[in-house]
Amino acid sequence: MKGTVLIIDDEEKLRGLLAKIISLEGFKVAEAVNAKAGLKKLEQEEFNVVICDVKLPDANGIDSMKKLKEVSPSTEVIMLTAYGTIADGVKAIKNGAFDYIIKGDDNDKILPLLYRAMEKSLLQQRLFRLEKKVNKRYGFDSIIGSSKQIYEAINLAKKVAVTDTTVLLLGETGTGKEVFAQAIHYASDRRDKNYVEVNCSALGKDILESELFGHKAGAFTGANKDTKGLFEEANGGTIFLDEIGEMNSDLQAKLLRVLETNEFLKVGDSKPTRVDVRVIAATNRDLQKEAETGHFRSDLFYRLAVFQISLPPLRERVKDIKPLAEHFIAFFAAKVNKPVPEMSPEFVEKLETYLWKGNIRELKNTMERIVILSDNAVLMPEELPQLSNLHLALSTSFSLADMEKQHIQRVLEHTKGNKTEAARLLNIGLTTLYRKLEEYKIQ
Questions:
Q1: Over the stretch 21-68, which tens digit does the pLDDT of each residue have?
Q2: CATH superfamily entry for domain 139-310
Q3: Going by DSSP bridges, is the β-strand pair 76-81/273-274 parallel, antiparallel, or unpaired?
Q4: Strand partners, 199
Q5: Which of 203, 290, 314, 421 could lock onto 415 through a cystine, CB 3.0 to 4.6 A?
Q6: Residue 213 — φ and ψ, nearest 5°?
């Protein structure tokens, strides 16, 4: 079927003739005798094109345009009239009509017009479906949870998303800062432009500067040509600076200049480059404390902290653990082509009493491992042995430092002492890991 067409006209003979002509072209056709019946059909069924008479028994077709488009934005409307005037034509187009045709004109004119309207409608529907798919994957619909804490964070993010305000996302590692940054971008007017992510802890100062701002040919050994940086790639869109607290002080100064002037200097360049980029930054550190102690530029902190959103750790949103676990289990079961197992009440209870220092990321990794290893239709608590010892260890001390130390030790045990892999799993820079190893006297 090529598409669907609704004809709204009170003249039975003309309506029937149009329906026959259009049906012969392979389109599915429905009919309505007045505006009320037409709107009802449009609410019940999806139509690509509506052919509507201007003079209807219960309404003026042109005035009904807004209601038609409100009910079905992707539907294109062709207006029909026995007495065409320029004023009516202008008003019809202004109200959203695809085009305007006079009754009695050669019927051959309606088909080329219908095909053009159909092509536009089908394209619009594809775009709507794509946008819905993107929102489900990257938008606020992708954030799972109904707890008060996550609801408040989502509500704040939705309010700031429609602005161009710089956003600072705060929260422990694994709380979903990347997901929130993506959702803010895709809910903004910049959604059609690039969204660029960069982990500020993953690269050294010189490499990060070149990555962010680009460089001119000859700026350093190996710089054979002019290269765009990530800020230029994100021009018109959004750049997400994760682990901003790890950024070198010299780069902090360059970032401050971008935020204040929308300009920066490429490495080796003397002429500023201008961009229009929204900045979303994230950190698991207390930036205000870092600024007060001189470890982070206070002027940059206050510029970044115009709008802060704190993401709650998973242990503070226990209500969300079960739906998150169900989501991850279903996702990984589909990925490895296994039936989706159920969670026993005891299994859920154990999940909800565990402290989840690694937050959502740790829960996700745990569910992936269980799905791979388990062949049971119902998951039981004994399938979570890796949580038992740590849970007991954590229960003996509620000091944040002690819990962090134990978590780092556990990850190092998992990687058999491989510090590079441990830093990756912990989602922190290698230098940060070494600093914490020294701080906690971990060998």
A1: 899 888 999 999 998 899 899 888 889 999 988 888 888 777 777 788
A2: P-loop containing nucleotide triphosphate hydrolases (3.40.50.300)
A3: unpaired
A4: 242
A5: 421
A6: -110, -5
